[in-house]
Amino acid sequence: MLSVIIISLVGCQNNQSKEKKIIGEWDACWETKAGDGIQEIAHDNLKMNGTINFKDNGEVEISAFGFKGCIFSDDTLKNILNWKIDDTVLRFIDGNDELGLPYNINKFTNQELHLTLLDDINLTLSRN
Fold first, then answer.
1. pLDDT digits (tens, 9 = 90+) for 13-25
2. What CATH topology corresponds to 2-127?
3. How far apart are alpha carbons 69 and 81 in whole angstroms?
4. Distances in Å between the alpha carbon of 78 and those of 41, 58, 75, 90, 107?
């Protein structure tokens, strides 16, 4: 019983630590690979840059700088969502959608995050 309590406390502290570390503005780069149906798209068109600003009130401001030919968007996108993080997943949540967009956390340091959505979209965040 004591080991279960200790593991639970360590997990909670780790989440709180990640929540504190993630606060602030990050440079963002979304990338995907050519695959079925998108083999002929230029490599530069398979990525999009932007910024993501995590607020301590649970909001996140996302700016994504699309361009003509970009597979993600041909225009700049701006959105304010909510975010939640645990040991393995960072979620961007819109309104009452509890699940949101679940990005799996592959790497998390003070200066860099590597995330994956749906096994084919990679999001790299780095500190400004």
1. 455 587 889 999 9
2. Lipocalin (2.40.128)
3. 26
4. 25, 17, 10, 19, 25
